[in-house]
Amino acid sequence: MKKKYKIALAAVIVLCCLAGFFFLDQPGERFSQTRTFPLMGTLGKITIFSDREELPEAALNEAQKVIGEIEKVCNIFNPESELSRLNRTAYEKEFVCSPLLWEMLTAADHYCRFTGGAYDPTVQPLMKLWGFRRKRQTLPAEAEIREVMKKVGWNKVKLDPEKRSVRFLTGGIELDFGGIAKGFALEKSMEIARKNGVVRAIFDLGGNIGCISPEKRGPFRIGIRDPESPAEILDTIEMRSGCIATSGNYERYVIIDGKQYAHIMDPRTGLPVSGMLSVTVVTPRGTDSDALSTAIFVTGEKFAEEVCRKIPGTGVLIVRNAPEDPSGRRILRFGSLVR
Length: 339
Fold this sequence. Notes:
Blueprint: E1 5-6, E2 14-15, E3 20-23, E4 31-39, E5 42-50, H1 57-74, H2 82-89, E6 95-96, H3 99-114, H4 124-129, H5 142-149, E7 157-160, E8 165-168, H6 181-195, E9 201-205, E10 208-212, E11 220-226, E12 229-239, E13 242-248, E14 253-256, E15 259-262, E16 265-266, E17 271-272, E18 276-283, H7 286-299, H8 301-310, E19 315-321, E20 329-335
Helix pairs in contact: 1-6, 6-7, 7-8
C-alpha cells in the first residue's frame, strides 16, 4: 500500500463521513444505478453495477427499506422510536421487544462480552455529561463522573430470551446503538442484495462501507482518511468482498478549557479515550467492523491482535499519538487488510 494520497478532484474519489472510496472501472461493466438517501443524520448511498441494462431495482428498494426500518427502531433522537420507549420505561417495567430490536440487543450483548466492556451501549449518560449532547464549558468533576457511572454498565441490563424482554436494574440507564447501528444496517442490506442476485455493488452507509464483487472483477479501492489531515487519504485498501469501518477523533469532539476531547468514551472509566487518532477495521461482517473499530479505539493494540486471531479475514489499521516518534504518531497494522 502507498503512503499518502492527495485527494484528486476527479469524480472517482468520494469522501464519506469516516472513510473515502473510489472504484476501478472494469471492461464490460457498462451499467450502474445509484440510490442516495438520508440515514442517521448523514447520507447513505448504494451503487449496483452490471454488464446488463436490467438492474435489480427490487434489491435497491428492499435494501433501503430494511435500513429505514433499523433507523426507525433505534433512533434515540425520535421520542417515539422503539428504543426511546424502551429507555423511558425499562426500569419501571419489563419491555417486550420487536424481533428487530431484540436482534440488535443480542448483538450488543455479544459485543459487550467479546470486548470485555470496551463496547457498551449504556454510555449515553456519559455522552451527556461530557457535552456531546449539550455543550459544557468546564470539565466534569470526579464526583460527577462517579455519579453518572452508576448508570453505566451492561451488567445493569437484564435480557430475557424467552420473553424477548429487557429490564433495567438501575434508574437512569439509556441505551444508544450508535456503535453498531450503521454496521448492522450495512450487513442486513448486503444480505438482501445478494439474495436478489446482486454480484457487484458498493454500499456506503455514512462511512461504513461494504463491497460485493466476484473474483473475475477487479477490486474496489477504499481510501482511508488521514485523521490529522482529513482532506487527505492516508492509505488505500483493496476489497472485493467485506466491510470496513473507521472510528476516529476528527469528526466529533468537544473542546473544554481549550483542550479537544474525542467523542469515544471508555465505558470502564467514564473518560474520553486519549492518545488514539483512528482505528479502521476490515472484516467480513458489517456489524463486526462497526463495533470492533470502536472497541479497539478504546483498548488499543493488544485487543486488535486478539480480534485478528479470533475473526478470520480481519485486518486492523491503527493511528495513534507517539510523542517519542519524529512524526508524532505511529501507524500500526494487524492481520489482513485485503478482502
